[in-house]
Amino acid sequence: MTLQSEAKLSQIAEAPVKGRTRRYRPGRIRERNRERIIAAAEQEFAQHGFRGATIQNIAERAELPKSNVLYYFSNKKRIYYALFDDIMARWNAVFSEIRPEDDPAQALETFIRTKVEMSRRFPLASRLFAQEIIQGAPFLKDHLRTSMREWVRGRAGVIQQWIDEGRMAQVDPVQLIFLIWSSTQHYADFQVQILMVENKAEYEQRDFDHAADFLTAVILRGCGLEPTKQ
Amino acid sequence: MTLQSEAKLSQIAEAPVKGRTRRYRPGRIRERNRERIIAAAEQEFAQHGFRGATIQNIAERAELPKSNVLYYFSNKKRIYYALFDDIMARWNAVFSEIRPEDDPAQALETFIRTKVEMSRRFPLASRLFAQEIIQGAPFLKDHLRTSMREWVRGRAGVIQQWIDEGRMAQVDPVQLIFLIWSSTQHYADFQVQILMVENKAEYEQRDFDHAADFLTAVILRGCGLEPTKQ
DNA sequence: GTCTATAAGAAGATAGAC
DNA sequence: GTCTATCTTCTTATAGAC
């Protein structure tokens, strides 16, 4: 049972009901409730993982009766899958495309800043992903093995080209991608730890700017590159 | 309810029973069973978090009946706390001490390599810690606010001294600690993702050596330092 | 479409036999 | 010390009233 196959199932369930084209937009409530449930489920699953999350808690967060949640998604797995549909779509849309003809410093800086920005805007998605991986990626294994593996191979190839052309220091491209992933996601996944250590109640925009500046400076210099003045 | 107070409670429960000094060592079975349970619980909690873990599963992993587990620890929280007793003890024992009189390059290299080595030797402990933080650190909040905060302040102070003496580039010391934490722990916490992306069945020693070499090279260069020939 | 009631099973925890 | 039996509560999921 792959993410892809389940994704299709959930899309079918999502398809608008035909022959009911009324003026007040059919499925308006449906849409709104689905969104509430998705938002609530993201919080619950991000915090407690698949097994630790309960439908009751999701329902309470969504301010809906539990059976209403099960009416829309029929079971716990479907809710979980639906979340990854959304997250992977966002991931693929935003994800930095680096090309051989780009300037290495500028491309890597954009990559780092985009990832930090994602940690800022979608911390729950980041934590949900982290939970799924820590738990052994039971749902995303196929995706990692195929799409994500291909993505890394492609990006690593571009970085290797830059190295071969002497445009940056000789560093392992795949390890570099891991470094950028880990260091940027950290701000979302370990938010509580960072806030406690820095003695703050919550993050502000400038904290993320500062983090992005720091990571850009250190990683680019670490790759033998000078930060661009973007 | 702090970690410290519960830690004391678990130590009391651990105290040897008096007036039973027999030749075959009293509590031998007890000790062995406790260890089995701790090892099993580490796996279960690391994979599923506090709420997702079940006593039944811990018992099965330990190959003991469920009530035997509850006999030794009386409830789920006690098992969880006992894990952090062990982990924090290890953490404090191994944790890299950097001092102002040290060479920055050598000290940071040791820090990075020690952390990678910990990811290799104790991946479950790393994942357990990650789970606890992602879930909002309900058990470790006090520890983060006090001990860990102090530790970071101390280490950051030393790094700042090096910077002020012009012995390394001007980088935010606290962010540097976060960077080293995140990038090194990543090899334990996101093990599955790395293995899938690199198309491997499992890690080998040389993968960790390679990762440590990479991180040392990039981060040291990123801090304006040359790697030492250690 | 929505929600109450409830089945069926699993969870944490305890009592007490051995 | 060990383990079976059991209590209570909670969990997923379904049936069916409205």
TrEMBL record, chains A, B:
Coiled-coil segments on the chain, per record: none
InterPro entries (alphabetical): Homeodomain-like_sf, HTH-type_TetR-like_transc_reg, HTH_TetR, Tet_transcr_reg_TetR-rel_C_sf, Tscrpt_reg_YcdC_C
PROSITE patterns reported in the protein's UniProt record: HTH_TETR_2 (PS50977)
Residues in the DNA-binding region annotation: 54-73
Keywords: DNA-binding
Domain annotation HTH tetR-type: ranges: 31-91
Gene Ontology MF terms: DNA-binding transcription factor activity; transcription cis-regulatory region binding
Signal peptide: none
One annotated GO biological process: negative regulation of DNA-templated transcription
PANTHER family membership: HTH-TYPE TRANSCRIPTIONAL REGULATOR RUTR (PTHR30055)
Protein name: TetR/AcrR family transcriptional regulator
